[in-house]
Design brief:
With 117 residues, the protein is mostly helical. It has a domain at 50-117: F1FO ATP Synthase (Up-down Bundle). Helices cover 93% and strands 0% of the residues.
């Protein structure tokens, strides 16, 4: 139960970081008067935004890689148990491990989109 609570807390922090990373840009686009003020504060605002973007991207990759590692560990354990009873199942277990590793790739894609956009 503690792992679920820790994962939920990390997910909440990642979502919060992603929301705060986009907030200054949305406020700048909302009014033309804000653009004149933004040009005076550009270095500080850009630094604050980039910090949140890096933090959100790091959380996206970190959480997805941890979750992918847990999934591959459980799938590998079950596959080894099944193969010990029936060796013909080795080819059928490999795609499931590949699907679990795909979680990490999706996290990387999300982080890349956070950094680009």
């Amino acid at each position: 139960m503690n792992q679920k609570m820790a994962f939920a807390a990390l997910l909440f922090l990642a979502l919060e970081a992603a929301v705060f990373a986009q907030e200054p840009e949305a406020q700048a686009e909302s009014s033309a008067g804000a653009q004149a003020e933004l040009s005076a504060e550009t270095p500080a605002a850009a630094q604050s935004t980039s910090v949140w973007k890096y933090f959100a991207a790091a959380l996206a990759v970190g959480i997805s890689c941890i979750a992918g590692g847990i999934a591959v560990g459980q799938i590998g354990s079950a596959a080894m148990g099944a193969m010990s009873e029936n060796p013909e199942l080795s080819g059928k277990a490999l795609p499931y491990a590949g699907l679990a590793e795909g979680i990490c790739l999706w996290g990387f894609l999300v982080a890349l989109l956070i950094m680009i956009l």
